[in-house]
Amino acid sequence: MNAIRTATVIGSGVMGAQIAAHLAGCGIRVLLLDIPAEGANRNALAEKAKANLSKIKPSPFYSTEALHLIRTGNTADDLKDAGETDWIIEAIVEQPNPKRELFAKLQSVMGSSTILSTNTSGIPLKILCKDLNQDVQSRFIGTHFFNPPRYLRLVEVIRGPLTSNETVERINHVLTDVLNKVPVPALDSPAFIANRIGVHAMAHTLRIARELDLTIEEVDAITGPLMARPKTATFKLADLVGIDVLLHILRNLQAAFPDEGFSVDPLLEKLLTEKKLGRKTGAGFYRKNGETLEVLDLKTGEYHPEHKTRFEELKAISKAEDPEEKIRLLFAAHGRGAEAAQHILKATLEYAAKVASHVAEHPGYVDEAMELGFGWELGPFKIMAAVGANNYSPLPPQPISRGFNLARWRKEHKPVLANSDATLWDIGDNVLLLEFHSKMNTMGPLSLDMILKSVEKANNGQTGLVIGNHGQHFCAGANIAMLLLDAANGEFENIDAAIRQFQTASMAIKYSGVPVVVAPHSMALGGGCEFVLHSPRPLLSPETYLGLVEVGVGLLPAGGGTKELTLRALNKNRGGIPLLHLSEAFKLIATAKVSTSAREAFEFGYLDARAGIATNETTRLDQAKAEVLAMSRAGYHPPAPATHIEILGTEALGAFETAIYLMREAGFASEHDERISKAVARIMAGGAVTPGTIVDEDYLLELEREEFLSLVATKKSQERIAFMLKTGKPLRN
After folding, report:
1. What confidence score (pLDDT) does residue 574 get?
2. 518-535: b or e for each residue (b if 16 or more CB lie within 10 Å)?
3. Which one of 179, 199, 604, 688 is most buried, counting C-beta atoms within 10 A?
4. Starting at the edge strand that comes first in sequence, how are the strands of the sheet with 303-305 ordered?
5. pTM of the prediction?
6. Which fold has domain 402-549+594-639?
7. pLDDT above 80 for 389
8. What is the C-alpha separation between 71 and 608, in angstroms, rounded?
9. Alpha-carbon distance 376 to 560, whole Å?
């Protein structure tokens, strides 16, 4: 199979430019083209789009260093270069004729193995490719990315009339093993899977809102998390997508399926005319008026301040964590809000069942498309199964197997060990898996105890241990609510015991006699990051946000994290100037720097050569297990204990304290920030001792405990912890 290493993206608009950014962020060299601009610089449109990529938040790149992998050009001068790349992605205006005209030009310059794909969101491929010769048609395919391309993992893959199996295999390979995507096969029907069902749900919901006299606030209150869907619900999602984009899709679907309920509400036309297109214009169904969030009145078309909506019968449902249980409770509830939710959901389920065979080969792909493209926790067929509604369709739900499914494993196997915060599983081949399942997967005594027991169990006749899960986050750090309670009550012996337990868990991971692969995803903060630092082979999801963030709550990393970054900085095998390495590590902790991807974690210095990045989040735990087995086959031995650490003492302490003083004088740090930074400095310097003093790991761990206990006893650190718990934001005091 010919690997895809180079690509051309034609069309440098929002989608095209960000697709180019994601490809480059994954190591693919990209040529970004747009129509020639007027004036001397014919590449101006593509160059402007490239320049804007570094300003987008959140970043469309895994690493902004990848920007240099994108070069620019124009469609008049550079199509020949495009034809020499492995993959051409068309992302121009969503109209058939301009696309077909472009394809006709590309046909004459394409290499013999170049794949041509369209990012159309809904135009059938049979319309777009009818003028192409058979050879090019065999290499023509639909790859419908969802916005934003880096973060939404769905790519609908659509075969054209003559698309070859080899083309499908090559595209699926690059999407899965390079771009961290889930390629979902869709049939060549207008709007494919996700947009057809998702936009139908939105149009129907607006119609139901009018019929049942529901406000926008009420609709969004019941069609978001209560239905196991994102907080954007219905109308906030419309504002996010853009009223103009939504209308465009609706009109196309109305033309293609006039009898399926894709009616265009006059209010949408009014918003388009008034250029109230949602977030991109500052107003849509919602708008900000100063500090006040205002909402459109469906009856009058005027804005009013948002009213918080409460449906009493839905309160208990909102507290349910399991999405299947949430849906079952919703269908059993009675009241105005519950009945409206049931009405909306039933219509979506009925429509999904009706069109499933026209948009996908089987219902499992429909579920995947809605979950990955629209962020639903459960696709329509999973909802039917949860509420016993298989009568909607003659086709039973068919789960798609794309790697180790922890949720399914839980239903089919008994745990090795378990408590309320963590569970240990035997996942075959003598490999154990430890998953956390506390709130936000924060660490408390039960989770830490389970780490120690799991490592002990793994060392008793097992091949190794994986620490990972499929929760929303890997681990958001320590349970600071419990910490604050102990601090407020003066129970500092409890805090000391907790720190010792944390450090013991980290050291158990590091010095286990069998490999312990820590496999994080999403947030791996504070203690979660410390476990990664101590693993002999961390394997991260590409989308991992890694950082030691303790200073944000007035504390410092004391689960071995400060010690471990110090050891790495002072490692003589690293070369260079130890004080510079130590200063970089100090800055990471003192500024609570968090990576926005696994690649960036390498750049920051949180990860070294031992770490790896999983090729795809879906198979992260499979790959982690494979790493354990490979390390075992290679004759794994734990590292030797660090007993001869040559610390920098007063040399480092003086440099750090000077930097801290300058930050304070410049107004970048408060008095308490200064105190926290000095505590970190004392640990990393090894105290006010002679440079070159020899210590061991236990010495640095003891310093961690001392400085942590000193900080947590202060009123200002306790205020920072309380503020974080209340608002989710750091306090500068």
Report:
1. 79
2. bbbbbbbbbbbbbbbbbb
3. 179
4. 286-289, 292-296, 303-305
5. 0.93
6. 2-enoyl-CoA Hydratase; Chain A, domain 1 (3.90.226)
7. no
8. 30
9. 38
